[in-house]
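Methods — Computational structure assignment.
A single polypeptide chain was analysed. Its primary sequence is given first, followed by the predicted tertiary structure written as C-alpha cells.
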Amino acid sequence: MKAENSTRIQFDSLSSNEAYARGVTAAFLARYDPTVPQLADLKTAVSEAVTNCIVHAYPERIGPVCMTIAVYPDREVHITITDKGIGIPNVEQAMQPLFTTGNPEERSGLGFAVMQSFMDRVKVTSKPGKGTKVLLVKRLSRREST
C-alpha cells in the first residue's frame, strides 16, 4: 500500500529536539483534522519514542534520530523513529512495563507501555550495536459533522 503523503526529518539526539519532533508531528498531521485526543496520543507516543533514543540509544554521545510520518488510505498514520545507537539486546524484555536500563530513580521503564496504550500498534526492531526502529501506527477517525 502506498502512502498518500509523507515527510522525513533527521535531528540530533538532544533533549530539546523531543519538542521539535512533537511539533513536526502536529504540524504535518494538521491537514487531516485529527481530534484533539488523537493528536495528543500521537504526540505522546512520539515523545516517548524520541526520548528513548535520547536517553538509551546514545547514552555517551549525541547521534542521529530519523522520524518519518506517512499517511495511508483510510487515514492510517505510520510514524517510524529510528536511531543508529547501541540497540536493544532483548526487545521483548525492554517492552515489559517497569523495565529500564537507565537509572531506576530517574526512569520509570514505562516508555513502550505508554506508546502501546496510545497507539493501535507498536512494533520495535533492534540490533545491538546497529540501532533501533520503532513503528507507531494509529488510524485517525473522521470527525463527526455538526
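Note: The radius of gyration is 15 Å.
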